């Protein structure tokens, strides 16, 4: 066995994984410079193989970790690989790996990658020859020097350690401790025995009195025993009677409880039905109110239609008369208007003539005034100018001004003539527009009249569709209310299901259902079928029996195979959703056994369960071998007869071995019923939702139709409204055009008047010019001529006459004008307005019949309108009839619901009264039972007291039953007499005899224990003597062996030299030489004598030089190793203090032992060891990190050559 390889990681200066090896089984030399890590290499080996680094504290473990640049090292390990081909280690392997790992908080060993304890490691090493008593198979630096410095006593301790006397010392110490404990116990036992002896002597004097006391005491015990037995028998008899009464009361209580359960079930059922009737009653009332509201609306509609029919009938009967009267009135009005126009025409002609005459007179007056003015101006000029030239100059200027004014008047006339032409053209255009607008109005009016009939038909159809939509809305509202009720009920049923199967199971099943919905590929309905209770259908009568029979299997989930089950189990674990049992169908075997036979009193439970054939194996497995019997007695007989399990309808079970199980079963917590109710409610909900979907689809179609009709009606109304707006706009345009034409006519008239005035002014201007030109030709005279004077005078008179005539004409014109205005006002303001009103009225009644002369169709249209009104009235009356029929049915339904509600309320009240009565009976029974329980407790206490008293009597005399035939009175008298006799011995120690016996037994036991301690102490002393003797023998034997090998090794190291070991005894001058016989000697030390020549003087170690001491110490080390050889040795610079000769001698010795099969690993700075090596390894150090690698001898010698010679 030898070290094959060493791996160091993170230990001291070795940071990364450093592998040293493979090592030679002979001599391996490790070289390196100072501080490179050679000693750390040896520390790593000691870290694994020795106990130097045992029991490390945290800071000590940290000190062993590598400290350098970079990330800190948190753990380290040293791994040694041993070649075990010789089988020295008790492991059946050729190669063994031993590793020790340390960290901040760990320190552990592994052997072949398995954790082992430190004790196991060192026991294994000792079995291979690595004794902990031999400290020199690893020799580190300074150990040779320490050995040189040892005293004689320290060398003795070293030999003792080599001899293994530590074991003897430890065992001797343990033996002494045991002997001390035995001595202490023996002293205590002696003290106790002495006290017992004194107490026994006292108890001897109390024995006679105690005998008399015991005789009376036996009699008292016998009497007390007989009395207590009588009391016990009486208590038992009373308890038996109470038990019989309690059985009868229990039977009656069971019947009352069963009846109460039935009553409570009736109340619960009735309340559930009443709760469901409440919304139905409310819905019936709401339906009745809604139908009654529809009835009122229908009545109102019929009333309106009746009014419309009456008006239509009246209109149809009076339309022709109205049109005829209107026509007659219009003819009279037309004749009157003709008459008024006939009256107006001569008046207008007369007014025109009068105005002409008035205008002629005005013109004459103006001409005379102008002539008069000219004469006056001429007269004034004769006085104004002094010369003809001044006058002529003024006249020429006036002529020019007159001519300018004439041109201005002519221009004005031309302008007015152009305006008149423009206005006349505008009047013609406006008249053409009026004709076009009137034609367009007539067309629009005809189109509006034609669309009225279609609009009425569309409105009627729209109303019918609207009523149909209201009916669908009502149906949809009713179904929505039922759906909400079903959803509320399903929520309550879900809560009930959660209650009966447990919350954890409920949530687990819900998780599986959700997983099946969300992941149909892995957990679809073809793989996960659901829990058993949702996959079976049981007759209501047998649901309790099925629920009790199945038990927990009802919540087991059926899946297609075990792979799906495993996936579901993993999903449940990952989500922590609970625990569920799965039933894979591929694991279910087919049960070919027939079901139990049916009879008049029994039926196989399997026959009452319905399920999909796919699950038949599961259903047969759970329910297949169970019979349902009428009574528990029949079930018991059938179970024995057919060897099957039986169950009653109430859930009482009898198994095939005859065991019974049962009791009260709360049917409200039946899981099968809960699942069935939930399944039925879900089915009802889906049916209602499908019906609602159909209604919504129909409602959508109706809405589309209604929207279409409303859009068409709206479009027609828009067309009609647009036509009315256009007609109104056309009427306004026509009126505006007529007003514009009237304004233009008045403007033309004003322009004509202005032209007339301008022409008259031109005439006057011409005369004025003519007069001034004449005056230019005449001489300038003062004043007027006689002719001009006469003309002036005549002009004045004529003006006065014309003014008078003009005034008369003006009065005549005003009179004629008032009459004309009155006739015009009557025509425009009254007659024409009335004519327009009549036209509008007849147009509203008969359209354009008046204008188109088609009055023969008017009556037909009125009759059609009447028929439409009558049809609408008939339809409304039919709707009212249907509504009244629905109302009657709703009222009947409401009455029925109220009757059922009242019946359920009365039934609940009746059952509540019965519940109160049964509760009172149960309470009375409970009170009776409590009284019986109190009596039973009293009797039980009496029985317990009697039994306790009997037990407390202890051991009884042999004749304890001799008083059995005596009466209780006699017994009490005898007991009283015995107690009086015992009072005389009240001072007697009643336990003296027992105490005497107990103390005697204790004395014997303690004496035996003392003898055992004495024998044990003697054995311990003998063991100590034996240990001392064996220790001395081992020390002496080790001394002899080491002394022998010491002499031999020294001779090999120092040829011709002599060496011996001397054992020092307690006497200072006595020496034990080699060969002294073993004896019980007190050794004090070991001395060494050496001579370095065969003839030289022998010296003690203290008398030698340093080098000599080192060679002597090495001789002792090799001697110890030869005495207790190990498979390998590690030397760390043991040649440090030797000269060349001695180094060569030590190297030759190592070489010799290595060749004999012992492995050496040494470090050195000298070439002798290097030359004696078989393999060499160089230790390097760079950046605070050590490394080790195999090198050749020459390279190893360079390490030594480069190393300084001084240390």
Which architecture of the domain at 1-130 and 1127-1206 does the CATH hierarchy give at level 2?
A: 3-Layer(aba) Sandwich
State the helix count.
24
How much β-strand is present in the residues?
A: 5-15%
At the fold tier of CATH, the topology name of the domain at 1-130 and 1127-1206 is Rossmann fold
Name of the CATH class of the domain at 1-130 and 1127-1206: Alpha Beta
Sheet having the most strands: 6 strands, antiparallel
**For the residues shown, what is the average pLDDT?**
79
Structural class, judged by helices and strands? alpha+beta
The helix content is 55-70%
Residue ranges: pLDDT <50 for 5 or more in a row? 847-854, 1068-1079
Number of strands: 26
Gyration radius, in Å: 74 Å
For this structure, what is the CATH homologous superfamily of the domain at 1-130 and 1127-1206?
P-loop containing nucleotide triphosphate hydrolases
């Amino acid at each position: 066995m030898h070290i094959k390889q060493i791996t160091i990681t993170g230990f001291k200066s070795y940071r990364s994984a450093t592998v040293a090896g493979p090592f030679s089984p002979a001599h391996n030399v490790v070289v390196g410079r100072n501080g490179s890590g050679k000693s750390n290499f040896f520390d790593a080996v000691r870290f694994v193989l020795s106990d130097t680094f045992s029991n490390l504290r945290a800071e000590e473990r940290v000190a062993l970790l590598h400290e350098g640049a970079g990330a800190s090292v948190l753990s380290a390990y040293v791994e040694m690989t041993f070649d075990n081909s010789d089988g020295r280690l008790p492991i059946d392997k050729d190669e063994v790996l031993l590793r020790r790992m340390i960290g901040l908080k760990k320190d552990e060993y592994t052997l072949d990658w398995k954790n082992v304890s430190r004790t196991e490691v060192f026991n294994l090493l000792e079995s291979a020859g690595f004794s902990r008593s031999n400290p020199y198979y690893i020799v580190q630096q300074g150990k040779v020097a320490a050995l040189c410095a040892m005293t004689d006593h320290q060398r003795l301790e070293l030999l003792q350690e080599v001899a293994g006397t530590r074991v003897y010392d430890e065992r001797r110490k343990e033996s002494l401790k045991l002997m001390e404990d035995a001595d202490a116990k023996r002293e205590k036992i002696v003290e106790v025995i002495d006290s017992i002896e004194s107490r026994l002597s006292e108890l001897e004097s109390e024995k006679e009195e105690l005998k008399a006391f015991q005789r009376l005491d036996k009699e008292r015990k016998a009497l007390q025993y007989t009395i207590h037995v009588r009391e016990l028998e009486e208590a038992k008899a009373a308890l038996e009677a109470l038990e019989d009464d309690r059985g009868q009361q229990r039977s009656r209580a069971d019947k009352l409880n069963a009846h109460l359960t039935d009553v409570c079930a009736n109340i619960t059922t009735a309340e559930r039905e009443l709760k469901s009737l409440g919304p139905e009653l409310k819905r019936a009332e709401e339906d009745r109110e809604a139908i009654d509201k529809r009835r009122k609306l229908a009545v109102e509609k019929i009333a309106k239609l009746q009014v419309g029919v009456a008006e239509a009938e009246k209109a149809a009967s009076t339309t022709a008369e109205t049109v005829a009267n209107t026509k007659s009135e219009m003819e009279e009005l037309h004749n009157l208007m003709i008459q008024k126009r006939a009256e107006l025409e001569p008046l207008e002609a007369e007014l025109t003539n009068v105005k002409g005459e008035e205008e002629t007179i005005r013109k004459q007056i103006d001409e005379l005034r102008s002539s008069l003015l000219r004469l006056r101006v001429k007269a004034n000029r004769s006085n104004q100018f002094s010369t003809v030239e001044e006058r002529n100059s003024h006249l020429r200027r006036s002529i020019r001004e007159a001519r300018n004014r004439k041109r201005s008047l002519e221009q004005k006339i031309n302008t007015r003539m152009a305006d008149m032409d423009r206005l006349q053209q505008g009047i013609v255009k406006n008249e053409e527009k009026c004709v076009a607008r009137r034609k367009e109005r007539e067309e629009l009016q005809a189109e509006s009249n034609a669309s009225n009939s279609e609009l009425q038909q569309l409105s009627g159809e729209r109303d019918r569709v609207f009523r149909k939509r209201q009916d669908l809305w009502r149906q949809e509202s009713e179904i929505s209310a039922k759906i909400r009720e079903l959803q509320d009920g399903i929520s309550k049923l879900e809560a009930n299901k959660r209650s009966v199967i447990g919350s954890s199971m409920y949530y687990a099943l819900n998780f599986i259902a959700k997983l099946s919905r969300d992941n149909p590929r892995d957990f679809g309905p073809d793989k996960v079928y659901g829990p058993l209770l949702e996959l079976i259908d049981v007759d209501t009568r047998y649901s309790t029996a099925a629920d009790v029979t199945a038990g927990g299997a009802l919540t087991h989930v059926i899946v297609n195979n075990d792979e799906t089950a495993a996936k579901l189990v993993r999903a449940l674990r990952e989500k922590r959703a609970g625990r569920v049992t799965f039933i894979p169908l591929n694991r279910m075997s087919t049960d070919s056994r027939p079901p139990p036979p049916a009879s008049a009193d029994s039926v196989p439970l399997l026959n009452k369960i319905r399920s999909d054939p796919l699950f038949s194996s599961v259903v047969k497995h759970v329910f297949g071998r169970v019979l349902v019997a009428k009574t528990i007695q029949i079930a018991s007989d059938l179970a024995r007869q057919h060897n099957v399990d039986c169950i009653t309808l109430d859930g009482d079970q009898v198994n095939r071995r005859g065991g019974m199980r049962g009791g009260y079963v709360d049917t409200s917590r039946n899981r099968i019923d809960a699942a069935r109710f939930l399944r039925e409610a879900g089915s009802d909900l889906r049916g209602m939702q499908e019906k609602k979907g159909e209604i919504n689809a129909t409602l959508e179609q109706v809405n589309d139709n209604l929207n279409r009709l409303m859009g068409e009606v709206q479009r027609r109304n828009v067309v009609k409204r647009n036509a009315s707006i256009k007609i109104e706009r056309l009427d306004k345009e026509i009126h505006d055009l007529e007003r514009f034409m009237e304004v233009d006519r008045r403007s033309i008239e004003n322009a004509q008047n202005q032209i007339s005035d301008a022409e008259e002014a031109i005439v006057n201007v011409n005369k004025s010019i003519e007069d001034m030109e004449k005056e230019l030709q005449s001489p300038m005279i003062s004043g007027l001529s006689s002719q001009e004077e006469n003309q002036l005078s005549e002009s004045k008179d004529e003006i006065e006459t014309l003014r008078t005539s003009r005034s008369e004409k003006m009065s005549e014109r005003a009179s004629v004008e008032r009459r004309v205005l009155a006739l015009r006002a009557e025509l425009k303001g009254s007659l024409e307005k009335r004519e327009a009103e009549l036209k509008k009225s007849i147009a509203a009644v008969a359209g354009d019949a008046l204008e188109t002369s088609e009055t023969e169709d008017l009556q037909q249209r009125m009759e059609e309108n009447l028929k439409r009104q009558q049809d609408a009235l008939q339809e409304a009356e039919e709707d009212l009839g249907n509504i009244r029929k629905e109302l009657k049915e709703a009222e009947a339904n409401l009455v029925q619901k109220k009757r059922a509600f009242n019946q359920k309320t009365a039934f609940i009240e009746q059952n509540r009264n019965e519940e109160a009565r049964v509760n009172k009976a149960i309470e009375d029974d409970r009170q009776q039972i409590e009284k019986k329980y109190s009596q039973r407790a009293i009797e039980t206490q009496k029985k317990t007291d009697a039994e306790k008293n009997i037990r407390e009597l202890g051991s009884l005399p042999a004749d304890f039953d001799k008083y059995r035939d005596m009466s209780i009175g006699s017994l009490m008298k005898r007991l009283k007499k015995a107690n009086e006799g015992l009072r005389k011995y009240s001072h007697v120690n009643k336990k003296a005899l027992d105490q005497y016996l107990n103390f005697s037994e204790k004395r014997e036991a303690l004496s035996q224990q003392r003898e055992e301690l004495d024998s044990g102490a003697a054995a311990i002393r003998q063991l100590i003597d034996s240990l001392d003797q064996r220790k001395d023998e081992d020390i002496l034997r080790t001394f002899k062996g080491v002394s022998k090998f010491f002499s031999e090794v020294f001779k090999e190291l120092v040829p011709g030299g002599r060496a011996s070991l001397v054992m020092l005894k307690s006497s200072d001058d006595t020496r034990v030489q080699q060969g002294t016989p073993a004896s019980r000697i007190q050794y004090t030390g070991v001395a060494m004598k050496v001579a370095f020549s065969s003839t030289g003087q022998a010296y003690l170690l203290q008398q030698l030089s340093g080098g000599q001491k080192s060679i002597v110490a090495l001789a002792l080390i090799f001697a110890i190793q030869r005495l207790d050889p190990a498979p390998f040795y590690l030397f760390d610079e043991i040649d440090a203090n030797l000269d060349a000769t001695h180094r060569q001698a030590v190297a030759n010795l190592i070489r010799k032992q290595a060749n004999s099969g012992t492995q050496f690993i040494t470090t050195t700075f000298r070439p002798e060891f290097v030359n004696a090596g078989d393999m060499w390894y160089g230790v390097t150090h760079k950046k605070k990190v050590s490394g080790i690698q195999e090198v050749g001898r020459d390279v190893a010698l360079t390490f030594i050559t480069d190393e300084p010679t001084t240390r």
